[in-house]
Amino acid sequence: MTTPAAPAPHTLDPAAVVDEFLRLVMIPDPQSASRFTAPDIRIRFTGNRPMSAPGDTSAFNAKRYAWVKKKIERTETVAGGTPEDTVVYSLGTLYGAWPDGTAFEGNRYVDRYVVRHGLIVQMDVWNDSAEWLLVRAGLAVL
Protein backbone atom coordinates (compact mmCIF):
# COMPACT_ATOMS: atom_id res chain seq x y z
CA MET A 1 0.00 0.00 0.00
CA THR A 2 1.39 3.40 -0.92
CA THR A 3 0.49 6.29 1.33
CA PRO A 4 0.71 9.85 0.04
CA ALA A 5 3.79 11.64 1.34
CA ALA A 6 3.21 13.99 4.25
CA PRO A 7 5.30 16.90 5.48
CA ALA A 8 8.04 16.07 7.96
CA PRO A 9 6.61 16.14 11.50
CA HIS A 10 8.95 18.88 12.71
CA THR A 11 7.56 21.30 10.09
CA LEU A 12 3.95 20.94 11.28
CA ASP A 13 2.24 22.62 14.22
CA PRO A 14 1.25 20.16 17.00
CA ALA A 15 -2.44 19.98 15.96
CA ALA A 16 -1.43 19.19 12.37
CA VAL A 17 0.93 16.45 13.65
CA VAL A 18 -1.98 14.82 15.49
CA ASP A 19 -4.39 15.20 12.56
CA GLU A 20 -1.93 13.65 10.09
CA PHE A 21 -1.06 10.86 12.53
CA LEU A 22 -4.77 10.03 12.89
CA ARG A 23 -5.33 10.16 9.14
CA LEU A 24 -2.60 7.57 8.63
CA VAL A 25 -3.47 5.30 11.55
CA MET A 26 -7.11 5.17 10.42
CA ILE A 27 -6.19 3.94 6.90
CA PRO A 28 -4.75 1.80 8.71
CA ASP A 29 -1.11 2.53 7.93
CA PRO A 30 0.60 2.35 11.33
CA GLN A 31 4.04 2.20 9.72
CA SER A 32 3.61 5.63 8.10
CA ALA A 33 1.90 6.94 11.24
CA SER A 34 5.05 6.00 13.19
CA ARG A 35 6.88 8.85 11.44
CA PHE A 36 4.89 11.16 13.73
CA THR A 37 5.76 9.37 16.98
CA ALA A 38 8.85 9.35 19.15
CA PRO A 39 10.65 5.98 19.37
CA ASP A 40 9.80 5.79 23.08
CA ILE A 41 6.12 6.84 22.74
CA ARG A 42 3.97 5.95 25.72
CA ILE A 43 0.45 4.87 24.75
CA ARG A 44 -2.38 4.18 27.18
CA PHE A 45 -5.27 2.75 25.23
CA THR A 46 -8.83 2.12 26.40
CA GLY A 47 -8.97 0.18 29.66
CA ASN A 48 -5.55 1.66 30.57
CA ARG A 49 -3.82 -0.85 28.27
CA PRO A 50 -0.14 0.04 27.80
CA MET A 51 1.11 0.03 24.22
CA SER A 52 4.32 1.18 22.60
CA ALA A 53 3.62 1.72 18.89
CA PRO A 54 0.82 2.75 16.52
CA GLY A 55 0.75 -0.83 15.21
CA ASP A 56 -0.28 -2.02 18.68
CA THR A 57 -3.41 0.13 18.55
CA SER A 58 -4.26 -1.07 15.04
CA ALA A 59 -3.84 -4.71 16.13
CA PHE A 60 -6.11 -4.15 19.15
CA ASN A 61 -8.76 -2.44 17.01
CA ALA A 62 -8.66 -5.34 14.53
CA LYS A 63 -9.79 -7.66 17.36
CA ARG A 64 -12.49 -5.37 18.77
CA TYR A 65 -14.03 -4.19 15.49
CA ALA A 66 -14.58 -5.57 11.99
CA TRP A 67 -13.47 -2.06 11.05
CA VAL A 68 -13.46 1.35 12.73
CA LYS A 69 -12.84 4.97 11.71
CA LYS A 70 -12.88 8.31 13.51
CA LYS A 71 -15.07 11.22 12.61
CA ILE A 72 -12.93 14.03 13.99
CA GLU A 73 -15.16 16.85 15.19
CA ARG A 74 -12.39 19.07 16.48
CA THR A 75 -8.72 19.20 17.37
CA GLU A 76 -7.83 21.44 20.31
CA THR A 77 -4.37 22.67 21.29
CA VAL A 78 -4.04 23.57 24.96
CA ALA A 79 -2.90 27.16 25.49
CA GLY A 80 0.63 27.70 26.78
CA GLY A 81 2.25 24.87 24.87
CA THR A 82 5.92 25.07 23.94
CA PRO A 83 8.01 23.12 21.42
CA GLU A 84 9.10 21.01 24.40
CA ASP A 85 5.59 20.11 25.55
CA THR A 86 2.26 20.82 23.82
CA VAL A 87 -0.97 19.01 24.69
CA VAL A 88 -3.43 18.38 21.86
CA TYR A 89 -6.89 16.82 22.13
CA SER A 90 -8.79 15.11 19.32
CA LEU A 91 -12.53 14.78 19.93
CA GLY A 92 -15.24 13.16 17.89
CA THR A 93 -17.04 9.90 17.31
CA LEU A 94 -16.20 6.43 16.09
CA TYR A 95 -18.11 4.63 13.38
CA GLY A 96 -17.66 1.20 11.89
CA ALA A 97 -18.81 -2.36 12.45
CA TRP A 98 -18.54 -4.82 15.31
CA PRO A 99 -16.97 -8.22 14.62
CA ASP A 100 -20.40 -9.66 13.73
CA GLY A 101 -20.82 -7.00 11.03
CA THR A 102 -23.37 -4.87 12.93
CA ALA A 103 -22.78 -1.22 12.01
CA PHE A 104 -22.40 1.51 14.63
CA GLU A 105 -21.84 5.25 14.68
CA GLY A 106 -21.84 8.04 17.24
CA ASN A 107 -19.48 6.27 19.69
CA ARG A 108 -17.74 9.20 21.44
CA TYR A 109 -13.96 9.36 21.78
CA VAL A 110 -11.38 11.68 23.33
CA ASP A 111 -7.67 11.29 22.58
CA ARG A 112 -5.01 13.29 24.43
CA TYR A 113 -1.57 13.72 22.88
CA VAL A 114 1.67 15.26 24.09
CA VAL A 115 3.73 16.58 21.18
CA ARG A 116 7.41 17.34 21.70
CA HIS A 117 9.49 18.92 18.92
CA GLY A 118 7.04 17.72 16.28
CA LEU A 119 6.68 14.13 17.50
CA ILE A 120 3.98 12.50 19.60
CA VAL A 121 5.56 11.26 22.84
CA GLN A 122 2.39 10.34 24.71
CA MET A 123 -1.08 9.22 23.64
CA ASP A 124 -4.07 8.51 25.89
CA VAL A 125 -7.27 7.08 24.35
CA TRP A 126 -10.79 6.97 25.77
CA ASN A 127 -14.06 5.99 24.10
CA ASP A 128 -17.52 4.64 24.86
CA SER A 129 -17.00 1.22 23.22
CA ALA A 130 -17.13 -0.61 26.56
CA GLU A 131 -20.52 0.96 27.29
CA TRP A 132 -21.78 0.03 23.84
CA LEU A 133 -20.60 -3.57 24.35
CA LEU A 134 -22.40 -3.71 27.71
CA VAL A 135 -25.60 -2.59 25.99
CA ARG A 136 -25.16 -5.26 23.30
CA ALA A 137 -24.74 -7.86 26.08
CA GLY A 138 -27.95 -6.67 27.77
CA LEU A 139 -26.07 -5.40 30.83
CA ALA A 140 -26.70 -1.68 30.41
CA VAL A 141 -29.01 0.83 28.76
CA LEU A 142 -27.90 4.04 27.09
UniProtKB/TrEMBL annotation:
Highest rank taxon of the organism: Bacteria
Protein name (Swiss-Prot/TrEMBL): Nuclear transport factor 2 family protein
